[in-house]
Amino acid sequence: MEEKRKKNYALPIIGALLAVVACVAYIVMRVMQQQAKEDKWSEYDDYGWM
Questions:
Q1: Nearest Cα to 42, choosing from 50, 34, 30?
Q2: How do residues 23-43 score in pLDDT, each as one tens digit?
Q3: What is the pTM of this model?
């Protein structure tokens, strides 16, 4: 009976950890994309296009 209780507590904790990891991965991916975009368009700043 005690093993069943441990499993019931473990699943929500694992689910919450996976959600946090997914959110952090999404944020990191968006920041990296934004940085790449800024790096690309920074070349045009020298020519006065932006």
A1: 50
A2: 999 999 999 999 988 887 777
A3: 0.66
